[in-house]
Write a structure and sequence with these properties.
142 residues; alpha+beta; Flavocytochrome B2, Chain A, domain 1; 49% helix; Cyt_B5-like_heme/steroid-bd
Length: 142
């Protein structure tokens, strides 16, 4: 895109329906209406962010390089005051053109995530077990 249209956030906010869905990611204004049905996380996830800047949510999920490359496909312009980063999208679009499929799994590769998930399961289990042991021993002692 040599000549990109420039939009304000208030202009983008006017496109927040299922039939006309726009959002902003990294300063890129995206028209994602046709992508709603294809989104692996469901169209509701995208519709919640329609008409808004969804950069933080997009990055928090940890999308694949192929998903990041798809941003170019749906771009209709840029947000006023932003200059899009072309270098990171080149690698993603090359990867997409090789025919790689976007994975439905978008979990970050983070070892601390596994530890946190384990602790979220284990700590309540220990607390519940301790409670039942205490209750049992209280009844047996009386």
């Amino acid at each position: 895109m040599s000549q990109q249209r420039v939009f304000t956030l208030s202009q983008v906010a006017q496109h927040k329906s299922k039939k006309d869905c726009w959002l902003v990611i990294d300063g890129r204004v995206l028209q994602v209406t046709k992508f709603l049905e294809e989104h692996p996380g469901g169209e509701e996830v995208v519709l919640e962010l329609a008409g808004k800047d969804a950069t933080m949510e997009f990055k928090d999920v940890g999308h694949s390089k192929a998903a990041q490359g798809m941003l170019r496909k749906y771009q209709v312009g840029i947000l006023q005051g932003y200059a899009p980063k072309d270098e990171d999208s080149k690698d993603a679009s090359i990867e997409e053109s090789k025919g790689t499929e976007m994975s439905a799994s978008v979990i970050k590769d983070d070892s601390s995530h596994r530890y946190e998930a384990f602790m979220e399961f284990f700590v309540p289990l220990v607390v519940a077990g301790s409670y039942f042991c205490y209750s049992y021993l209280s009844v047996v002692a009386n």
